[in-house]
């Protein structure tokens, strides 16, 4: 009785396995490897049914024994051939995954290039369009100030002139932030140093930047742009959220790898929790996506009270 129950359970399981295998044939795009394995599952169910018939009626055992033996041979052959061929299926899946990652990187690179192109265009329009108009207005105001006027009128003109001067400086700063000419003309090290100096003027945080790279050390424009934007994003994050008093940044080239290390002494956060929450740390995930577009790596770590620590690496 126990053997009968075991045979019935085995037959049921074999039938379920065969049905599931058949349903997956379409998912695997009718690959020969999975078809052979599916047939093997079906024949295993048939083999168990033969064993059940032999158990119930011994009179058929003599006739069914050869069929049972040959079914075992066929099943073994099908599984062996299926396993041999299934390697091609896994290779195709791996190849499709690699192509998907390459497509994602190409798409991100295209987005970054388009974004930077629009930044440059907008910066040029500001600098070449609005800049000269404000400069002309400033010259006109300066000319008016040369004439004799009462104190009130002179003060009004001086205030207007100061506003125009401030507007001109703001246009220059906005234009430079959109498309920093230092990055284009002098490279990554100079661009980061220039940004650090500007941020340091506010005295909000002390930034230590160290590098052995010079203006002659130039890299692919996409790499320089992504690394520069990522560093600026990290600095802005520290200023906005970290309540830090010091930031340490180092830029170095180790053999064929460009490395930026970033540390602040802010209040920190739970980096594992931030990574698991979809709406948390969008700036960091954006940096990671941009680094991935240039085949780079972005790794960060933080804990409450332990500041923020990150490293960016990319092959050059």
- First and last CA, distance: 72 Å
Q: Which strand order do you get reading across the main beta sheet?
A: 1-2-3-5-4
Task: Give the topology string: H per helix, E per strand.
Answer: HHHHHHEHEEHHEE
State the CATH superfamily name of the largest domain.
Answer: Histidine kinase-like ATPase, C-terminal domain
Could you describe the 3D structure shown?
The chain is of the alpha+beta class and 316 residues long. The chain folds into two domains: 2-104; 180-315, 2-Layer Sandwich (Heat Shock Protein 90), CATH 3.30.565. It contains nine helices and five strands. It has a five-stranded mixed β-sheet with strand order 1-2-3-5-4. A hairpin with a 2-residue loop joins strand 2 (246-254) and strand 3. Helix 3 (61-145) runs antiparallel to helix 4 (151-178), helix 3 (61-145) crosses helix 9 (282-293) and helix 6 packs parallel to helix 7. The longest helix has 85 residues, at 61-145. It is elongated. The mean pLDDT is 79.
């Amino acid at each position: 009785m126990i053997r009968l129950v075991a045979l019935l359970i085995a037959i049921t399981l074999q039938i379920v396995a065969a049905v599931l295998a058949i349903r997956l044939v379409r998912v695997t795009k009718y690959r020969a490897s999975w078809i052979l394995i599916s047939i093997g599952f079906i024949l295993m169910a048939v083999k168990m049914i033969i064993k059940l018939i032999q158990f119930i009626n011994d009179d058929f055992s003599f006739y069914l024994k050869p069929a049972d033996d040959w079914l075992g041979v066929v099943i073994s052959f099908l599984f062996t051939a299926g396993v041999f061929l299934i390697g091609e299926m896994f290779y195709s899946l791996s190849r499709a995954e690699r192509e998907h990652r390459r497509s994602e990187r190409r798409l991100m690179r295209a987005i970054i290039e388009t974004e930077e192109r629009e930044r440059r265009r907008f910066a040029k329009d500001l600098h070449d369009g609005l800049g000269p108009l404000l400069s002309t207005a400033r010259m006109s105001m300066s000319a008016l100030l040369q004439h004799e006027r009462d104190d009130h009128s002179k003060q009004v003109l001086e205030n207007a002139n100061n506003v125009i001067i401030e507007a001109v400086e703001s246009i220059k700063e906005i234009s430079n932030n959109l498309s920093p000419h230092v990055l284009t003309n002098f490279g990554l090290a100079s661009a980061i140093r220039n940004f650090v100096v500007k941020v340091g003027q506010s005295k909000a945080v002390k930034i230590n930047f160290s590098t052995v790279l010079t203006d002659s050390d130039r890299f692919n424009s996409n790499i320089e742009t992504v690394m520069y934007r990522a560093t600026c994003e990290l600095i802005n994050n520290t200023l906005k959220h970290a309540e830090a008093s010091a930031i340490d940044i180092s830029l170095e080239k180790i053999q064929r790898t460009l490395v930026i290390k970033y540390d602040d002494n802010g209040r920190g956060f739970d980096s594992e929790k931030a990574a698991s929450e979809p709406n948390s740390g969008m700036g960091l995930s954006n940096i990671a996506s941009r680094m991935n577009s240039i085949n780079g790596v972005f790794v960060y770590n933080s804990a409450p009270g332990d500041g923020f620590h990150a490293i960016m690496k990319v092959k050059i």
